[in-house]
Amino acid sequence: MEPLDHLNSDSVWNFHVWNDCWMSRPDLPPGMGGWQALDSTPQETSQGTFRCGPASVTAIRTGQVYHKYDTPFVFAEVNSDKIYWQRNLDGTFTQIHSEKKAVGHFISTKAVGSDERADITHLYKHTEESEEERIAVETASRYGTRPDVYSTPMAKDVSVEVKMEGEGPRMGEDAQLTIVVTNLSSQPRRTTLHSQVAVMYYTGVLKGTVQKNKLPVELMPNEVKTIQWVLPYQSYQNQLVDQAALMLTLSGRVSETQQVLATQTNFRLRTPDLNIEPEGDAVVGKEMAAKITFTNPLPHKLRGVVFRVEGLGLQKVREVVVGDVGSHSTVTLTEHFIPTQAGPRKLVAALDCKQLTQVHGVADIDVQSQ
Q1: Residue 85's pLDDT is what?
Q2: How do beta strands 206-219 and 189-200 pair?
Q3: Is residue 351 very low, low, confident or very high in pLDDT (cuts 50, 70, 90)?
Q4: 68 CB contacts (<8 Å, ≥6 apart)?
């Protein structure tokens, strides 16, 4: 089985950023004021324009998607299930699998007074699998185009999931994930998992397939089997785009029961951070320095490397041409600057070259007045 690209118009983004603002909503019933979601870069248009909101966060949380503006869309952004369909020989489609926890994780904002992440998922949705969540989803589904989409009569006694260790695979190395196949029945089970991995933009759009494999799996009764899945560095090194994201699709059919297995997992290849170490006292009008260190993680040379360093109240944007950096070599740059404003400041550095993206670092500097 392979994805039908022309029927996969929906996408799941790796991340998305929007705004919340606090306002009254006299145009809505009482209780719908307070936090409102606004999104100037939504995935889809609203009445022909790329805009979204304001949508009441209270309405989103309770599934009252009939309140304006664009509440159904925001509800779907944080609550959607991923439904897998199979095309039959006669051209009709049968639902074969659903992932009910695939979307809407770690809704976050910056904590007040620090750079820590403050989790606000509970403001947008009830606890997973709670009675409140079930009621909210059922309420919203009554206003959807497929109110009967959750019927899955086929018995399922084999499951498949993909697990990732730590922060995930690192750029410049073979990408390794663990596939866990579980047999919940008291009988043996056999299947062949078809794996396909594709390069993905952060918007969920697939660029192209980089590897396909077949993995025969035989399971004893009640057995849990782990399979190490590997994507060699050479297979993806010249294929990546923006966020270095990949999508792994697994599908298969259990021979004994005809149960269909399907799941998708997206992951990013982790790039190294720039290490920034301030040196000397940070005082307005007094020169200080910061040491910036970077190690090339790739097994080949980086060409045309450029550093960009800036910090509000510390220095304007400055570009430093480094040139070529050898495989696994370390580069150290010392940046001198004179702070112009007192208080907590941030020095930000980013690396730019064709072979490697998304490399940056930040250092907090507390500048004292004279």
Answers
A1: 83
A2: antiparallel
A3: very high
A4: 27, 28, 55
* Tokens found for residue 327: 């495989």
Rounded Cα distance, 244 and 33, in Å: 39
Of 100, 94, 224, 103, whose CA–CA distance to 159 is shortest? 224
SS3 content of the chain, % helix, strand, coil (to 5): 10, 45, 45
d(CA 153, CA 150) in angstroms, rounded, equals 9
DSSP one-letter string for 295-360: E--SSS-EEEEEEEEEETTTEEEEEEEEEEE-TT-EEEEEEEE---S-EEEEEEEEEEETTEEEEE
Lowest-pLDDT range of 86-90, 201-205, 253-257: 201-205
| Cα 307–chain centre separation | 26
pLDDT of 150 > 60? The answer is no
pLDDT at 149: 56
Q: Is the pLDDT of residue 3 over 80?
A: no
What residues contact residue 212 under an 8 Å CB cut-off, 6+ apart? 194, 195, 196, 197
Which of 63, 141, 139, 132 shows the shortest CA–CA distance to 98?
A: 141
- Given pLDDT bands bounded at 50, 70 and 90, which one contains residue 186? very high
Q: How far is CA 331 from CA 154, 292, 321, 327, 359, in A?
A: 58, 8, 12, 11, 14
Task: HSE, CB side, 13 Å, CA atoms: give it for residue 261.
Answer: 29
Quick one: which of 146, 178, 149 has its CA closest to 83?
149
Structure tokens belonging to residue 342: 């007192």
CA distance 262 to 108: 29
pLDDT tens-digit profile of 29-49?
A: 877 888 999 998 887 777 777
Which two three-digit tokens encode residue 346? Answer: 């941030």
- Going along the chain from its start, the domains and CATH numbers come out as 5-141 (3.90.260.10), 158-268 (2.60.40.10), 275-367 (2.60.40.10)
CA–CA separation, 126 vs 114, rounded Å?
A: 26
